Every structure is written in structure tokens, then in C-alpha cells.
Amino acid sequence: MLTTEEHEAIVADAVEGMLKKMPEIVANLMVSNAAYAEISVKFFDDNPEFINHKEIVRSVVQMTESANPTKNYEEIFKLAVPEIKRQIAVKGTVSMEPAEKGSLDLSCDFPTTGDNGAL
Fold first, then answer.
1. What is the pLDDT of residues 50-93, one digit of tens each?
2. Which residues have a Cβ under 8 Å from the Cβ of 115 and sit 6 or more positions away?
3. How high does pLDDT run on average in the chain?
4. Most-buried pick from 10, 24, 87, 95 (CB within 10 A)?
5. Using CA atoms, how far apart are residues 110 and 89, in angstroms rounded to an integer?
6. At what angle do helices 73-92 and 4-46 cross, to 10 degrees?
7. Where are the domains of the chain?
8. Rounded distance, CA 54 to CA 33, Å?
9. 87-95 long-range CB contacts below 8 Å, 24 or more apart?
10. How would residue 34 be classed by pLDDT, with cut points 50, 70 and 90?
């Protein structure tokens, strides 16, 4: 069993170690974000048809990145293109206008075998 002093010393060492690594971690995140931004700009320059569908691009890229954690951003964007195109095509077939009230007929005649409504 650890004494209180030993426990506090271990925690203090761990905290100090993490604090010393913070500048490196932040620098790596900044470099990663800069690379992502640069690749994003190039991606939309190369695929101008996606500009009006950024929500789809964002969603598909995130899913692709999750499914391919070892790939770099350039590869992820390339892998995402077919799914982005598919989702844009699907979205184009869906009406985003509200349906008219009462325009949906939900009635149907189900066959029954008896008076109790059983099939």
C-alpha cells in the first residue's frame, strides 16, 4: 500500500511529465490542422461540384477517417470521393420541401382470415 506522500509524489511526477509534453502535443495538433486545411482547400479546388455540399463532404470525410485511421488526409479525401458523389446524388432525389397537409394516404386494406383481424 502506498503512503499519502508516495501517492502525491507519483501524481506530481505524472502531472509534471504531461505539462512538459504539452508544447509538443499542441505543436503537432497545429501542424496537423494546417495540413488538413491546406488539403481541404486543394480538394475543393479539384472538386468544385462539392462546394455547395460541404456538410456531406464533412460527414463522409469524418466517417472515412474513422474507418481508415492509418491513412493520411490526402488518402482519406481520395477514398471519400465515391461516397460523397453517391450521397450528393441521393440528396438530389429527395425533396426538401414540406409535404402538403393531408397529402399522404396511409390507408390500406389488409386481408384478414376472420372477424378478429388476424391474418
1. 999 999 999 999 999 999 999 999 999 999 999 999 999 998 77
2. none
3. 87
4. 87
5. 35
6. 60
7. 4-92
8. 18
9. 87/53, 87/56, 87/59, 87/60, 88/49, 88/50, 88/53, 88/56, 91/53, 91/56
10. very high
> Quick one: cell of 50?
462539392
Cell of 44: 475543393
Is 39 within 8 Å of 74 (Cβ atoms)? yes
The dihedral formed by the CA atoms of 87, 92, 98 and 104, expressed in degrees to the nearest 10: -90
Long-range contacts of 111-115 (CB under 8 A, 24+ apart): none
